[in-house]
Write a structure and sequence with these properties.
- There is one protein chain.
- Helix content is about 40%, strand content about 10%.
- It is built from 15 helices and 15 strands.
- A 3-stranded antiparallel β-sheet has the order 3-4-5. A 3-stranded antiparallel β-sheet has the order 6-9-10.
- The chain is globular, with a radius of gyration of 21 Å.
C-alpha cells in the first residue's frame, strides 16, 4: 500500500474502561500489553532491554514508562531485517507500515541506540549493517529517497517521469536523504571507534554524495535530476518540467522535496541546507582525521564554506514581530517562505542536528515564530498544540514536532508540557502516530510509524538522564 493511502486512514482507538478522552484514567497501574510478543520480535538487544527495565523501575509516571517500553524498541521489534552478506553485516530497515527503506527514516530509527553499542556488540553489528545497506542504496541512485531490499523489484511509482530503476521505491530528491547517512556514519564512528565501515564502497558513496550536492547547487545548469508524477496531490509533483521554480544560483543546494516527501515551493530549503553544512563538517572530519582522501577533504571543506557563506548572506529574514529569523525556503531572488514543517530537518530541529546551539539569538527568535500563530502550520486545539505540515493537511499535529520541541528545550516547564501532551494524545495505543487532529487525538494517521516511536524513546531517555524529576 502506498504512503498516501496510509495518510488518508484514521483510526478510532479504544482501550476499554481504562481510556479517558485522550489517555488513560488517573490511577491506572496495569496497562494492556501492546508490544509485539517476544517470539515475533525482529531483533533483541540486551542493552535496550536494560534501559527499558531501568526506566520502568525508577520513574513515577507509569504511563510514560509503559509508552517508553512500547516505543523505544519498536524499530528493533518490528522493522529491521539483519543478515550477513559476503561477510559483511547488512540491515534493511522499513519505515513501519510501508515496506521500503528511506535513507532518512532508517538513520533516524537506529540513531538513539548508538550510545548502547559499546555494551552490545550485536546491536553494533546491526547499525553497521544499516550503514552498509545505505551505501548500496546511494550507489544505486543518489537522487532516490526510498529503496527496496530486492534490487530487482519494480516500484508502484514506476511511471513517474524521472529515471526510475529497479530496487528504487521512490525517487524524490531531498537533501536530507544524503545527510542522514553521513550523520549515522559519523555518530557510529565516534561511539564505537570502528573505522572499518569506511571501506571502498563507503568512500565511493560519500564521493557520490558530494558530486550530487554540487550538481544541485546548479551553478552550471539545472543538473540531471527532474521529477513529475501524474497525481491529484499537488505536493507530489514538481512544476516547470520537473525542475521546480527558478532559483538564483548562489552556492545553496536545491531540494525538490522536503523531508515530508512534499514538494518544495522554493527549492532552497533552508533547514536542509543547514543540515548539509553540519553533515559536510562531519564528513570532512572523517576524511581528514582518518586520512582517507585528502583531495576529497578539500573539496568537502570548500563546498561547505560555499553553503555557509550563502546561508549567512541571504537566508535571514527581518520579521516585524520576531526580528531576525531563519526562513523555511527561499529562491535567491528575495522571496521567503515563512513557515516550519514537523518533519526533520525542520527549523525547530536545527540544534538537535548540530546546526545551531539553542542559545543563539537567531534560533531563539525563529523558535518563537515557529511556536506561534504566525507559523501557518502551528496548530493549537483541545487535545494539544504543535506543528504539522501540508503532508497530512490542516489542523493535524505531528507528535514528532512535540517531541522535537521537548528535545530542543532548555526550560523545565516546556519539557513537561511536551511530555504531558504526548501522554495525553497516544489515543490509548501506547505508541506515537504520524499525526492527530488538534481537537481529537483519536483521529490520527499511521498506527505503525517507527521513526516517531523511537524518537519518543530518545526524548524520554534524555529527560531521564538529565531531568528525572520531570518524569515523576
Amino acid at each position: 500500500m502506498n504512503r498516501k493511502s496510509f495518510i488518508q486512514q484514521t483510526t478510532l482507538a479504544t482501550a476499554g474502561v481504562f481510556l479517558s478522552k485522550y489517555s488513560f484514567a488517573n490511577g491506572v497501574t496495569n496497562f494492556p500489553t501492546v508490544r509485539i510478543p517476544e517470539t515475533q520480535r525482529k531483533f533483541k538487544s540486551k542493552a535496550v532491554e536494560r534501559v527499558i527495565a531501568e526506566i520502568k523501575s525508577k520513574i513515577g509516571n507509569k504511563e510514560i514508562a509503559w509508552m517508553f517500553e512500547n516505543c523505544f524498541p519498536n524499530t528493533l521489534d518490528t522493522t529491521v531485517d539483519f543478515e550477513m552478506i559476503n561477510g559483511k553485516p547488512d540491515t534493511y530497515v522499513i519505515t513501519g507500515d510501508i515496506d521500503a527503506m528511506w535513507l532518512r527514516d532508517s538513520s533516524a530509527q537506529v540513531w538513539p541506540y548508538l550510545p548502547l553499542c559499546k555494551e552490545d556488540k550485536d546491536l553494533q553489528q546491526l547499525i553497521k549493517g544499516v550503514i552498509n545497506r545505505q551505501v548500496k542504496c546511494i550507489l544505486l541512485d543518489p537522487y532516490a529517497n526510498a529503496f527496496y531490499k530486492d534490487p530487482t523489484k519494480i516500484s508502484e511509482w514506476k511511471d513517474d517521469l524521472t529515471e526510475m530503476k529497479p530496487g528504487v521505491h521512490e525517487r524524490k530528491w531531498e537533501i536530507d536523504s544524503l545527510c542522514y547517512p553521513i550523520r549515522l556514519s559519523y555518530g557510529y564512528w565516534k561511539e564505537t571507534g570502528d573505522a572499518s565501515v569506511f571501506d571502498e564502497k563507503w568512500i565511493a558513496a560519500m564521493t557520490l554524495i558530494v558530486k550530487t550536492f554540487k550538481e544541485q547547487q546548479r551553478l552550471d545548469g539545472k543538473g540531471p535530476y527532474h521529477f513529475q508524477r501524474t497525481t491529484a496531490w499537488a505536493t507530489d509533483g514538481v512544476p516547470l518540467g520537473g525542475y521546480g521554480y527558478p532559483v538564483k544560483p548562489n552556492g545553496l543546494i536545491c531540494s525538490m522535496f522536503r523531508p515530508s516527501d512534499d514538494a518544495t515551493v522554493f527549492p532552497y530549503l533552508v533547514p536542509s541546507n543547514w543540515f548539509a553544512t553540519a553533515s559536510l563538517s562531519q564528513l570532512y572530519i572523517i576524511f581528514k582525521d582518518g586520512l582517507i582522501n585528502n583531495d576529497l577533504a578539500k573539496i568537502i571543506y570548500n563546498l561547505n564554506a560555499e553553503i555557509v557563506t550563502a546561508l549567512k548572506k541571504i537566508a535571514i529574514h527581518n520579521h516585524p514581530t520576531f526580528k531576525l529569523i531563519i526562513p523555511y525556503e527561499i529562491n535567491g531572488f528575495g522571496s521567503f517562505h515563512l513557515m516550519d514543517d514537523a518533519n526533520i530537518p525542520s527549523l525547530l530541529s536545527m540544534p538537535y542536528l548540530d546546526c545551531f546551539t539553542t542559545n543563539v539569538d537567531i534560533y531563539k527568535n525563529t523558535r518563537k515564530f515557529i511556536i506561534s500563530k504566525e507559523n501557518p502550520f502551528f496548530f493549537k486545539g483541545k487535545a494539544a498544540e504543535g506543528i504539522g505540515g501540508p503532508h497530512c493537511g490542516m489542523d493535524m499535529i505531528w507528535p514528532m514536532s512535540i517531541i522535537m520541541r521537548g528535545l530542543t528545550s532548555l526550560d523545565d516547564k516546556e519539557i513537561k508540557l511536551c511530555l504531558d501532551m504526548l501522554q495525553k494524545t497516544h489515543a490509548g495505543t501506547g505508541f506515537m502516530h504520524e499525526s492527530f487532529h488538534k481537537d481529537d487525538a483519536t483521529n490520527y494517521t499511521r498506527k505503525w510509524f517507527a521513526w516517531a516511536n523511537t524518537l519518543f524513546g530518545e526524548f524520554v531517555w534524555k529527560v531521564f538522564r538529565e531531568k528525572p524529576h520531570l518524569l515523576n
